[in-house]
Write a structure and sequence with these properties.
Layout lengths: L7 E4 L2 E4 L5 H10 L9 H10 L3 H8 L7 E3 L3 H10 L5 E6 L21 E7 L2 H11 L4 H9 L9 E7 L2 E8 L18 E5 L9 H9 L6 E5 L15 E2 L5 E5 L5 H7 L1 E2 L5 E5 L31 E6 L3 E8 L2 E8 L20 H9 L6 E5 L3 H7 L27 E5 L5 H22 L3 E8 L2 H10 L7 E8 L26 H6 L1
Parallel strand pairs: 3-4, 4-5, 7-8, 8-9, 9-11, 10-12, 11-13, 13-16, 14-17, 17-18, 18-19, 19-20
Antiparallel strand pairs: 1-2, 5-6, 6-7, 14-15, 15-16
């Protein structure tokens, strides 16, 4: 068979053979049919299948070395042939241990000759096997030799290592589920790192705080930092720990089971105000254990003056997370706190959660965001959040002094409150409406201005009727009340639309900023 002439399509009553496609277009079509995950084994066998369709396709694929760049070490013979056919192209190496799959250093000795072409590594196996493979490819980067020596031999399955290498420098390092790591033995610093992800470590792998700060201080290009159950508790009796500046950081995700460790870590870091933060705080009752003393230090959700340049800030509070989103001209960032209660099975049945957070805790959180303009709230925490917005009757309930005296009232720049009502009876709805009115009467007396917009959203017709009847009572404290309906089926809280600040100028539809927001 010289070519697959049976593959045809009809356009304007003319049969067109697939063999009439230009070679470069046919290769592009074949690439689009590949599994998008760059380390998926299916890519290997689909490439082989395409090369056996006909002599024409085989010749075409053999002349396209970039189709043969994935080396799956589960199949050493195939991997070696792919390595040859990839010619001088950069290659990616993967090994996912399944069942009795075993890799031998002797059968993979040929890999060392091509290690300088490696641009990516994905290994899901024991630390012992990871060490063996790294010893073969360590010429790919000077960092790999020392990194290999830090991994202690351990035959337990579970660790996953993912690396990206460019110009012999490790740019992305992902470590998940490692059991035993000797961090003090790592003297080589990955100075070119743009992404560092450390997750689900065993106790013998936890990174000491001084070592963590030392590593970060040598990563000025770092854009992504994720630390989930990856570092030791904050050291006691050690003063003057290194302060680290991360000028290129775009995303920070952190979790730790020791109260205060996260906030202390943030106090030692400096990063742009456009950085997005995610806090995993499962089981945490007091948010002040996570929050740094002053979010304004990062330029996040803070402003020295309510009339500063246009800023749109949105705080979303749902039963499972607390997220702050900020938009400035040409920049954006988010802060999200995942605060799942311990009794998750009770949530679907509508049972009240045992996880409660005091009004003082919410006051501490919201008072550190004096330029916050938009709040969306739903679930059992709504009443406490509303109460925290009221003017203080005494000393502010904060673990630290307010930034400015006139910020004693939480969120003085608030422009819009969006309440997603989820109660199942009108009695609870009535109590929520009374709480909203009580809250904004107190704020009106303190700030001497009305709330510009109040949005009340519910899926129940009886609740909407109650809200519409109650709306005139808000006239003295709210400029505009908007009662909305929503689908009865639960919707993703994070997908709720953002109401933009009236002071914020929307970017043109074709601008980079508008594309980022979309």
């Amino acid at each position: 068979m010289s070519h697959p002439s049976s593959f045809t399509s009809t356009v304007a009553s003319h049969a067109i053979s697939i063999t009439t496609l230009p070679p470069e277009l046919l290769l592009l079509v074949l690439e689009f049919t590949m599994n998008p995950y760059q380390y998926h084994t299916e890519r290997i066998f689909r490439t082989i299948a395409y090369s056996h369709v006909c002599r024409c396709w085989r010749s075409l694929l053999l002349g396209a070395p970039d189709f043969w760049t994935l080396l799956d070490l589960q199949f050493p013979t195939i991997a070696r042939e792919f390595c040859v056919r990839s010619q001088d192209c950069p290659i990616r190496v993967s090994f996912i241990e399944a069942g009795s799959t075993h890799v031998s250093k002797d059968t993979l000795a040929w890999l060392s000759l091509h290690s300088r072409r490696i641009e990516g590594v994905y290994l899901a196996t024991s630390q012992t096997v990871i060490r063996d493979i790294l010893s073969l490819i360590q010429p790919a980067s000077p960092f790999l030799g020392q990194f290999k020596d830090c991994l202690l031999p351990d035959d337990t399955h579970g660790p996953i290592l993912s690396l990206d290498i460019h110009a012999h420098e490790v740019q992305r390092l992902n470590m998940d589920g490692f059991h035993a790591v000797n961090w003090p033995g790592l003297s080589e610093r990955p100075t070119s790192l743009t992404s560092l992800v450390l997750t689900r470590f065993g106790e013998r792998s936890y990174l000491p705080i001084p070592r963590l700060l030392s590593i970060l201080s040598n990563c000025p290009k770092l854009q992504t930092l994720t630390l989930l159950s990856a570092f030791l508790p904050w050291p006691v009796g050690i003063a003057n720990l290194l302060a680290v500046e991360l000028p290129a950081l775009q995303s920070l995700e952190v979790a730790h089971n020791t109260p205060g460790a996260v906030s202390k870590l943030l106090d030692r870091l400096s990063f742009p105000h456009t950085t997005s933060l995610t806090f995993h705080a499962h089981g945490t009752i007091d948010l002040s254990c996570l929050l740094p003393k002053n979010l304004a230090r990062f330029g996040l959700a803070a402003s020295s003056c309510i009339d500063d340049p246009p800023v749109t800030q949105l705080c979303r509070i749902s039963p499972s997370n607390f997220m702050l989103t900020m938009h400035r001209p040409r920049t954006s960032s988010t802060i999200r706190f995942f605060i799942a209660p311990d009794d998750l099975p009770n949530i679907p049945s509508g049972s009240p959660s045992a996880m409660s957070m005091s009004m003082g805790t919410w006051k501490a959180a919201l008072s550190s965001m004096p330029a916050l303009r938009h709040i969306e709230v739903s679930g059992a925490w709504a009443n406490d959040v509303l109460l925290s917005l009221m003017a203080s009757t005494g000393p502010p309930a904060l673990p630290f002094p307010p930034l400015f005296s006139h910020f004693e009232t939480s969120c003085p720049a608030l422009e819009c409150l969006h309440v997603l009502e989820r109660s199942r009876d009108d009695t609870q709805t009535q109590k929520l409406l009374d709480a909203i009115l009580f809250t904004f009467k107190a704020r009106h007396e303190s700030l001497e201005r009305k709330l510009p917009v109040l949005i009340l959203e519910t899926s129940r017709a009886s609740a909407r009727a109650l809200m519409s009847a109650f709306a005139p009572r808000f006239a003295e404290v709210v400029e505009r009340v908007d009662v909305r309906s929503r689908a009865a089926a639960p919707v993703s809280f994070d997908a709720a639309p953002m109401v933009l600040s009236r002071a914020t100028q929307e970017a043109p539809a074709s601008s980079p900023e508008s594309k980022r927001r979309s």
